[in-house]
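Lab notebook, design round three. We kept the backbone fixed and only want residue identities now. Task for the bench partner: fill in a sequence for the structure below.
Input structure tokens:
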């Protein structure tokens, strides 16, 4: 009877010790995350301009009769709205009558983190301005119809940055995950916060 009692006591002590050890390990990981603190990855406006500029020049045909070409993107950081503005040179040609016009095409967008491939991508894309001087009213209406599809083809979900694995790797038992993306006057600042790997 004594042996059975001792065995039960030892089993209970073993379970308790393991539970305490697990709790201690979790507390240590949480403590490490708090001690390490966040990291910041900064992208300059020049870096963003190079990446987005790689998408251009772009040319496509719409409504069977209009050919549109866009090029020379110029970026503006909009920290007050946490967005990025992009102004493009636009050329529109009416193929049937062999006429053409030049103007500007203004877009803006935010940025989001895509966990599946650890990328930062364009989101909430918006057409802010389409200004083509001297264009007939009928042609102006047609250009207005294709403005949104054109913007979507240009930059919808476009990746502006991909994290390297080592940028998201912390100490044993920790990883870094994006916690915020802020547009600044000089570029973009991405905050990475440590989290325990469960």
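Proposed sequence:
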């Amino acid at each position: 009877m004594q042996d059975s009692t001792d065995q039960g006591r030892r089993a209970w002590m073993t379970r308790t010790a393991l539970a305490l050890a697990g709790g201690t390990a979790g507390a240590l990981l949480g403590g490490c995350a708090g001690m390490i603190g966040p990291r910041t990855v900064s992208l300059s406006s020049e870096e963003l301009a190079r990446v987005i500029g790689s998408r251009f020049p772009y040319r496509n045909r719409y409504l069977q009769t209009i050919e549109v070409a866009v090029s020379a993107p110029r970026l503006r950081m909009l920290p007050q709205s946490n967005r990025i503005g992009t102004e493009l040179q636009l050329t529109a040609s009416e193929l049937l009558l062999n006429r053409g016009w030049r103007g500007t095409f203004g877009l803006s967008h935010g940025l989001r983190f895509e966990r599946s491939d650890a990328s930062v991508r364009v989101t909430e894309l918006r057409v802010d301005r389409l200004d083509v001087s001297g264009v007939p009213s009928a042609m102006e209406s047609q250009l207005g119809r294709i403005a949104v599809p054109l913007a979507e083809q240009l930059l919808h979900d476009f990746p502006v940055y991909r994290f390297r694995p080592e940028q998201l790797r912390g100490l044993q038992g920790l990883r870094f995950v994006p916690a915020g993306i802020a547009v600044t006057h000089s570029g973009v600042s991405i905050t990475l916060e440590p989290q325990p790997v469960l």
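Keep this in mind before ordering anything: The longest strand covers residues 99-114.
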